[in-house]
Structures are given as C-alpha cells and as structure tokens.
Design a protein that fits this description.
This protein is mainly beta. Helices cover 0% and strands 46% of the residues. A 4-stranded antiparallel sheet has the order 1-2-3-4, with no helix packed on it. InterPro entries: 6-blade_b-propeller_TolB-like, NHL_repeat, TRIM-NHL_E3_ligases. GO terms for molecular function: ubiquitin protein ligase activity; zinc ion binding. Keywords: Repeat.
Length: 225
C-alpha cells in the first residue's frame, strides 16, 4: 500500500494527559485517557471537546485506567476498564448504561462488538472472553500457557470472518486466531525493517481488509498489511 495519507488535524493536546484508546463513530471521536481516568468525546467537524465522563473510582460510570474501546451499531460506547475488572458501557451521549464482566474479568485491555457478541481481551490471564449480546459469558478462549500462542497481548481486532488478530507485545508479531482460538497465521517478527515490529500496540482492520498496526520501532510507526 503506497498511498500517502494527508495530515488533517492535531487536537486534544491541551486536554488529554495520557490518551490510550480511540474509536471513531459517525459524528464523533471517542478517546480514553488513563491518567484522567476518563472517556472523552470530540466532534468530527472541528474536533472540539463535546463531553467528558468518568473519574477515578469503582462506582457506576467511574473508571480506573480505561484502555481500549469501541462503538457498537447503536452508538453505545464500550470501554475496557482495566483496574475495575469490567467493561463499562455508555450511551452515545456518554451516559452510563451498564457494565459487564465484573466477576469474570481480571484485566480487560480491549473490547470489540459484533452483531452477536461482545469480545473482550483480558490481559491478566491472557484470555479472549466472548459474551452474548445478553451479556452472559458464553465462551472463553485461553491464549497463553506453558506453550502459549500469545505471550503478552496488548490490543486486538476482528476481521469479517470473526478471526481474532492480536498484537503480541514481547514476541513482536501479530497472531491471527480462529474464532475458536486456534492459531492460523503469524505476521512479522522483531526488527526495524518493513513488516517487522518493536513492541506492537494498536491494531485495526479497514473495511477492505487492510491491517494497520502501530509499533515503537524507530520514532514509532504505522504499518499496513
């Protein structure tokens, strides 16, 4: 992929302290901030702050080191609330709606939503949890053990087939797992050349199937596959 994207806008530098996750909806951009323990909403027209919600705490609507997030088809925002061991759900207007996984999750780091499931990457036991849209745990896919497939996961994404793509922070690659957790393919290795990674973090897949990965490398970089 040789197309160069034009830089459009820098925003949030006077508001954000430690931005971590980002999700783009039709009219808004949502960002989690680990230092502010907050979820922030910016509009896409001029990228001004619309609303902020969350303070450090464990009550409804409070957050403690929020990480990855996503927006579902109804506009609700799902936030992986790391230190509260749950996923917090907010409306498009950032009103608290519900939470899930309180008694099952240990260190949720990222979350994605499909038409049928809520999928959560749990960093502490290194599991991928699957919830039905009724928010009941229906399956759990272990991704690490003595001979674990994934060593230290950081973020993940889902392709149109339901396969799970996970960035492996310490093995410096991307693991592609089937919906049942079987290893299908590995992308990349440690290094600073094209197609190689040093501490890969964020990952996303476009509607056309292009995989975008952020990694440290030299001066940080975004790679596409």
């Amino acid at each position: 992929m040789n197309q160069i994207r034009k830089f459009l806008k820098r925003f949030g530098q006077d508001i954000l302290k430690r931005p971590w996750g980002i999700a783009v909806a039709e009219d808004n951009v949502f960002i989690t901030d680990r230092e502010l323990h907050a979820l922030l909403q910016f509009n896409k027209k001029d990228y001004k702050l619309v609303k902020r919600t969350g303070n450090k705490g464990a009550g409804d609507g409070e957050l403690d080191k929020p990480q990855g997030l996503c927006v579902d088809y109804n506009g609700d925002v799902y936030v992986a609330d790391l230190n509260n061991h749950r996923v917090s759900i907010f409306s498009n207007a950032l009103e608290f709606v519900n939470s899930l996984g309180t008694h099952q999750l240990h260190g949720p780091g990222d979350v994605k939503v499909t038409p049928t499931s809520i999928v959560v990457l749990d960093l502490s036991p290194n599991c991928v949890h699957f919830y039905s849209r009724g928010e009941h745990l229906i399956n759990s896919c272990i991704t690490i053990g003595e001979d674990g497939v994934v060593c230290v996961p950081s973020f993940f994404s889902l392709d149109i087939a339901g396969n799970i793509l996970i960035t492996d922070l310490y093995r410096n690659n991307i693991k592609i797992l089937s919906p049942s957790g079987e290893l299908i393919h590995t992308i990349g290795r440690e290094g600073h050349r094209r197609g190689e990674f040093v501490y890969p973090y964020g990952i996303s897949i476009s509607a056309l199937g292009t995989i975008y990965v952020i990694s440290h490398n030299i001066n940080f970089c975004l790679q596409a596959f």
